[in-house]
Amino acid sequence: MRRPIVSLAALLLAATATQALAAGKPSPARQAHDAAIVLDTHFDTPANFGIPGWSMLQRHSYEADGSQVDLPRMIEGGVDGGFFAVFTPQGPRGVEGFHAARDYALYRAVEIREMVAKHGDKFELATKADDAAAILGRGKRFVYVSMENSDPVSGDLSLMTTFYKLGVRVMGPVHTRNNDLADSATDKPEWGGLSPAGKAFVAEANRLGIVIDASHASDESLDQMIALSKTPILLTHTGCKDVFNHPRNIDDNRLRALAAKGGVIQINAFSNYMVAVPVIPEREAAMKELIAKVGPPGRNMTDAQRKAFNEGRKAIDAKWPVPRANLDDFMAHMLHAIKVAGFDHVGVSGDFDGGGGITGLEDVTDYPAITERLIAAGYTPQDVAKIWGGNALRVLKAAEAAREAN
């Protein structure tokens, strides 16, 4: 059994918070949280934008529809904005596959812009690092755009300019399977890191002022991105391999190399990358049966299908439970990353609406708990501000400066 992380500082913080609450004031940790620019570098929430009747302005729940981010919950969690991902599942490679991926990504990018335009009094598109503070000053939440899996541009890197014009400022070359740009951390080596097109991708990202995201990339791909890029690398949702040994996580030596070049790791809350999850054949068979009966989860589901899927999944979880990571596990990764790389090189991502979510970090309303833990661990409000948004925005600013220097 894992021991919870409890310290004298945490107990003192809890006592102080109780006193502040009794006095009708926010706790010191909540004050630090609200003073920071709180951003998440990887929201998969755009997957919900095309669901009929789903709105960012309505409060949803994970229990009801599986979602974890919307405006009411952002407000409750003190979340000011984030990078909303243009995610494209890796499909067949080749000309037809590339065209399908391109069209899919263009559609998703337009959906993000349409959400912002529809709710322009609540959200605003951000394209520069300084936009975050400016948009907050206008009383809105900011929306940056990122791309997870750059297969949509792999057949024609000139499309990187197209997506840049659509607002994309962070791009990760690869996802869970190899593509024509790079090897994935969770696939067999094919290129030995980056492909020739992948190396050209790095150069073009630098030229355009796009931050390179090495999440999901193999170790060799990461090494080459760090070596080739003229600007810092961002890991938008990754953990520490020396805390939990999983291919998706980064080891200490690479974490130091990332930090030495000014890069940042955003610790994610994806349970399978944080604790060992056994394969239970009966559970796997039940999930396959559920999907065959109800249909695969996604935007094309009807409300009835979505409800049936969620109820079926809950029943499977109850019958064949598997270990689930919790806030202690998350903080173990974060505090380790801070120790190895320094708090100038660490941030936060829940990987929400894309499979993330752990006990204690179920959705964005739980984000103040991270600040409470950081303050309890002895970090200052200034440190917290860097971790919540300052570090990621610094990386974006460095990419902007490289573009201007070209």
UniProtKB/TrEMBL annotation:
Q: Which domain of life is it from?
A: Bacteria
Answer yes or no on keyword Metal-binding: no
Q: Point out the signal peptide segment.
A: 1-22
Ordered alphabetically, the record's keywords are: Signal
Q: Which InterPro entries match?
A: Metal_Hydrolase (IPR032466), Pept_M19 (IPR008257)
Keyword Signal in record: yes
Q: What is this protein called?
A: Dipeptidase
Q: Which organism is it from?
A: Phenylobacterium conjunctum
